[in-house]
Amino acid sequence: MSIEVDNVVEGVVTGITNFGAFVELPEGKTGLIHISEVADVYVKDVHDFLSEHDKVKVKVLSIDDRGKIALSIKQLQEKKPEAQAPAGNSSFRPQRQSRGPRDFRRGGRYSNSTASFEDKLSKFLKDSDERLTDLRRKTDSKRGGRGSRRSD
C-alpha cells in the first residue's frame, strides 16, 4: 500500500520529541505526528500517550515537496460532539439550555399576584436588610471584627 494523503497506515513509533513523535511507515519512510495531532485532549507531554516501539494507526495529512510526511492519530479517533470546546477557548463552559425569551415583568422572588405593592415593598426591604446584615457579619469576621475599620 503506497503512502498517499488521506490514507490510513500502520507504523511504529521510532522517536519522541517535545513537539511530537516520529513514526516509521511502510516502504521505510518516516513521518511525524505533531503534538497537536496526538489526541483530542490537551497533550502536555507526548510520553503520556505514546512510547517508542508502539504500533500506531495514523492518517496521512500531507506530504510536502521535500518528502516530509505529516501524520495524525487524532483524526482517526471518533469525535464526541458534546465534549468539544470552541477553538481557542480554554475556559470552555457548557451551553445553558435555552428557556426561550425571558419576561422580566413576570416577577420573580417578590411576585405574588395577590399582594399589594406595599406588601411586596416591605418584603423586599426585609429580605434586603437580612442579606446586608448577613453580608456584614461575614465580611467583618474576615477583616477582624468591627474594631479594625480604617478611618480616612
Instruction: Quickly count the helices.
Output: 1
Shape: elongated
Main-sheet strand order equals 1-2-3-5-4
Calculate the terminal CA-CA distance, rounded to whole Å: 81 Å
- Uncertain runs with pLDDT below 50, 5 residues or more? none
Structural class: alpha+beta
Please state the CA-atom Rg, rounded to the nearest Å. 30 Å
Biggest β-sheet description: 5 strands, mixed, barrel
Could you tell me the mean pLDDT? 79
Oligomer: single chain
Helix content: 10-25%
Question: Strand share of the residues?
Answer: 15-25%
Total beta strands: 5
Order of helices and strands: EEEEEH
Describe what you observe in this structure:
The chain is an alpha+beta fold and 152 residues long. Helices cover 18% and strands 22% of the residues. It contains 1 helix and 5 strands, in the order βββββα. The protein has one helix spanning 117-143, and strands at residues 8-17, 20-24, 30-34, 55-63, 69-72. It has a 5-stranded mixed beta barrel. It is elongated and about 85 Å long.
Helices and strands in order:
Blueprint lengths: L7 E10 L2 E5 L5 E5 L20 E9 L5 E4 L44 H27 L9
Parallel strand pairs: 3-5
Antiparallel strand pairs: 1-2, 1-4, 2-3, 4-5
Characteristic terms for this protein:
152 residues, alpha+beta, 5 strands, 22% strand
